[in-house]
Amino acid sequence: MNPDASTIAAGAPIEVDLTPIAVGQDIKVFWRGKPIYISHRTKKQIEAAQNVQLASLPDPQPDSARVKAGKDQWLVVVGICTHLGCIPISHEGSYDGFFCPCHGSVYDTSGRIRQGPAPSNLPVPPYTFVSDTKIQIG
């Protein structure tokens, strides 16, 4: 009566080694069938995300609430546009974050909605740092 291995694997946490991700680069992994972007942000991208006037954001959320304390170079977000569920492209758009070409939603380097029809920020999945170079998502 236990679930089969594929069912367990579909919801199981995954570990991701961050070592091969260069500064300014991101990777896409899958967790629970969803694309997860893991971005190794540059100093410029971090500063841009931290220096935004929160009142100007459609879904105000500080960058510090979207990253782990002391690890703000790492952004981990679910790569599904909050408008209609399309997959945005990373390092695109006016804010060097994510751009959804389907309907024009533009997200910044913190995954926050800045322009377009999306109603909210890209979600941050549950994740923890297992070590300095490895995270567990889920």
The end-to-end span amounts to 24 Å
The CATH homologous superfamily is termed Rieske [2Fe-2S] iron-sulphur domain
* Strand numbers in spatial order across the main sheet: 5-6-7-8
Q: What is the domain tally?
A: 1
The CATH top-level class label? Mainly Beta
Q: Helix and strand string, N-terminal first?
A: HEEEHEEEEEEE
Question: Could you characterize the architecture of this molecule?
Answer:
- The chain has 138 residues and is mainly beta.
- It has one domain (21-137): Rieske [2Fe-2S] iron-sulphur domain (Rieske Iron-sulfur Protein, 3-layer Sandwich), CATH 2.102.10.10.
- The chain is 11% helix and 33% strand.
- The protein contains 2 helices and 10 strands.
- The longest helix is centred in the middle third of the chain and has 8 residues, at 43-50.
- 27% of the residues are buried.
Q: In summary, what is this structure?
A:
By secondary structure, the chain is mainly β. The protein has two helices and ten strands; from the N terminus they run αβββαβββββββ.
Name some characteristics of this structure.
four-stranded antiparallel beta sheet; mainly beta; 2 helices; globular; 138 residues; 33% strand; Rieske Iron-sulfur Protein
Present the secondary structure layout.
Elements lengths: L4 H7 L2 E4 L8 E6 L2 E7 L2 H8 L23 E5 L10 E4 L4 E4 L4 E3 L5 E3 L11 E5 L2 E4 L1
Antiparallel strand pairs: 1-10, 2-3, 3-4, 5-6, 6-7, 7-8, 9-10
